[in-house]
Design brief:
globular, 158 residues, DUF1284, two-stranded antiparallel ribbon, three-stranded mixed sheet, DUF1284 domain-containing protein
Length: 158
């Protein structure tokens, strides 16, 4: 088990008052997660976060516009941040974070229960919005996030 998964396991076995730190754009990525990623450690970490939030929607999340719990296991993370797409990657991720935060009406540093974040996504984002938000993300053409956001959108309707 990776260090990050171990930290998730410890979180679930102790007082969970410390919020889970998630980037703005990661809030949308989690909607389409299907067990794929950049490395086994990354996938295991994302799966653990996804499971935690799915099973415990009352989990507190600190929404950030910087590397987060998911990034911690990414093989493209450096001290400077994301290097996935080259030198400007962290800047591009930061911009995506802020676009998502504006759409959701959340400021970086805010702490909310995951359930409320899901509610905001279902009210503010549709799958059709993702190309404008996610730009050249390599996962966008697979349609996983669009399906996940649209599914969330439909489940929130009476």
């Amino acid at each position: 088990m990776t260090q990050f998964c171990s930290e998730m396991a410890m979180r679930m076995n102790r007082d969970t008052t410390a919020p889970l730190r998630l980037r703005g754009h990661t809030l949308l990525c989690l909607q389409g997660f299907r067990g794929e990623g950049y490395s086994l450690d990354f996938v295991n970490n994302m799966a653990e976060v996804h499971r935690l939030l799915t099973e415990h929607p009352e989990t507190w999340v600190e929404v950030v516009a910087s590397p987060d719990t998911i990034c911690g296991a990414c093989p493209h993370r450096r001290l400077s941040g994301c290097t996935l797409n080259g030198a400007r990657s962290e800047e591009e991720m930061h911009e995506q974070d802020h676009v998502v935060l504006r759409k959701l009406g959340i400021e970086a540093g805010s702490r909310l229960p995951w359930r409320e974040i899901l509610d905001r996504i279902s009210r503010s984002v549709s799958g059709g919005d993702l190309p404008a938000i996610c730009g050249t993300c390599r996962w966008l053409p697979l349609g996983y996030c669009r399906e996940g956001v649209d599914r969330l959108h439909k489940s929130a309707r009476p």
